[in-house]
Design goal:
The complex is a heterodimer of chains A (213) and B (215). Chain A is mainly alpha-helical and 213 residues long. Helix content of chain A is 70%, strand content 3%. Chain A has a two-stranded antiparallel ribbon. In chain A, 34% of the residues are buried. Chain B is an alpha/beta fold and 215 residues long. Chain B folds into three domains: 2-65, no CATH class; 75-118, no CATH class; 126-214, no CATH class. Chain B contains eight helices and ten strands. Chain B starts with a helix and ends with a helix. Classes of the chains: A mainly alpha (213), B alpha/beta (215). Chain A binds chain B through residues 38, 40, 43-44, 47-48, 51-52, 55-56, 59, 65, 68-69, 72-73, 76-77, 80, 138, 142, 149-150, 153-154, 157, 168, 172-173, 175, 178, 193, 196-197, 200, 203-204, 207-208, 212-213, and chain B through 21, 24-25, 27-28, 30, 54-56, 58-60, 62-72, 75-76, 78-80, 82-85, 90. Chain B: Pfam families: zf-HC2. Chain B: Keywords: Membrane, Transmembrane, Transmembrane helix.
């Protein structure tokens, strides 16, 4: 019975309601309530609402399809197991992004410990561990479309140190505000700003080096 | 007014390193008022910093413009397959989480079920015990005939026992009546009434353990 009602809810109310300038997605609020009560269909709807965002986050943070998929699955598994702990006072997107980002950071740290990938010879120069990793694993067709510029930008992001990478990815690829990034990463906005500044400088140097600027 | 002029006068003294941090604040949309003036004045005179700003703006634009890679079609299915609820319903998940509680719950359900079975209204007369061969059974009545001596115990369920003779053993009554035509002394081992369901369970359980004792 519940399954059916949630499906109807989605088809009838798939619109955002504007309340005092703040976007309140009532559909999402209802879906989350149902999912909290263990409704299967509602959880599956929640997956459909957020899977792309988490996949893109994983893809940019980790640089390959397989790990992006893994991280998306792990994120939703965690969401499923701890949705009863989610406090509806806060934005759901902040909560799920926190889970996803933390999982990505954990992987990056493990990777670093396992291979010492960051042991670059000269500042940004030469071959380092990241070059060995399969970062571009799109089909040949897609690779034709990807321009040299995009390849450079991807690589520059891939090489960003982990603490700058998370803020840069959330800021520029997910278009989140500095405040939201602070909420996701549990750090003051001033720290987020410092990291955005340093990350931006790092990227600039890399892109300048690739004659893109 | 004076203050502002003074600040603007000091603009030239802002070095390029300081301007770099102003550039980032500007890109974050945080720069207003005097600081914004300072920056704009510096950029008018310093081509290096101006070039820096252009480069940073391009960096932002290039990073933002990075296309999102296509999401695999079967991602939803893969996610849902990894969720444990697909491998069982809520009760099963709960049971896996708290096995002891689940076992207790199963026990309670079975016991409750057996209670209903016990309390069936159309229960039949059951007579058992070692003194069986001396009694006469008529409808739901168990009669110990006059002059007859029962050398053993009797258990009567859902009926009535009429003792005209003598019973040397015990008489146990389960939801049954006893009719002693003379005195109670005719039952040497005493009479036990079991009417309540809980007593019944206890009786059954102790009987179960008695089986082991005998063996």
């Amino acid at each position: 019975m519940l399954k059916r009602s949630s499906k109807i809810l989605i088809t009838l109310e798939h619109s955002n309601h504007y309340a005092g300038g703040i976007v309140v997605d009532s559909t999402e609020v209802k879906i989350i309530k149902l999912a909290k009560r263990g409704n299967h269909q509602a959880f599956s709807d929640l997956v459909d609402l957020y899977k792309n965002k988490i996949y893109h986050l994983g893809y940019r943070m980790l640089g390959n399809k397989q790990e992006a998929e893994d991280i998306t699955q792990e994120t939703f598994l965690r969401v499923y197991k701890s949705i009863h702990k989610y406090d509806a006072k806060y934005k759901f997107s902040t909560w799920i992004f926190r889970i996803g980002t933390n999982l990505c950071i954990d992987r990056l740290r493990k990777r670093k410990n396992a291979f010492s990938l960051d042991a670059e010879t000269i500042e940004g120069e030469g071959i380092d561990g990241y070059d060995i990793l399969p970062s571009e694993d799109d089909s040949p067709d897609q690779q034709l479309i990807i321009s040299e510029t995009q390849r450079h930008v991807r690589k520059a992001i891939d090489k960003l140190p982990e603490k700058y990478k998370s803020v840069i990815v959330l800021r520029y690829l997910h278009d989140l505000s500095l405040q939201e990034i602070g909420d996701i990463l549990h750090m003051p906005v001033t720290t987020v700003k410092t990291r955005v500044h340093r990350g931006r400088e790092y990227l600039r140097k890399k892109l300048e080096h690739g004659n893109l600027l | 007014m004076n203050e502002r002029v003074l600040t603007l006068k000091g603009v030239g003294k802002v070095n390029c390193k300081q301007v770099n941090s102003l550039l980032h604040e500007y890109l974050d949309g945080d720069l207003t008022g005097v600081k914004l003036h300072q920056l704009s004045h510096h950029l008018d005179t310093c081509s290096n910093c101006k070039e820096n700003l252009v480069q940073l703006e391009k960096t932002e634009a290039l990073t933002r413009s990075l296309p999102k890679s296509p999401v695999p079609d079967d991602l939803s299915n893969k996610i849902m397959d990894a969720i444990p609820m697909n491998s069982g319903n809520r009760w099963m998940r709960w049971a896996k989480q708290y096995p002891a509680m689940a076992a207790a719950a199963v026990f309670v359900i079975i016991m409750t079920g057996s209670l209903f079975a016990i309390n069936e209204p159309d229960s039949k007369l059951i007579v058992s015990g070692s003194g069986m061969e001396y009694v006469v059974i008529k409808d739901n009545q168990v009669i110990v005939p006059e002059g007859q001596t029962v050398n053993g115990d009797l258990v009567v369920e859902n009926g009535e026992i009429i003792v005209e003779g003598t019973v040397n053993g015990k008489v146990t009554l389960i939801d049954s009546e006893i009719n002693l035509l003379a005195s109670a002394e005719k039952v040497a081992g005493g009479v036990t009434h079991i009417d309540q369901t809980l007593d019944w369970i206890w009786y059954k359980i102790s009987g179960f353990f008695d089986l082991f004792k005998k063996e």
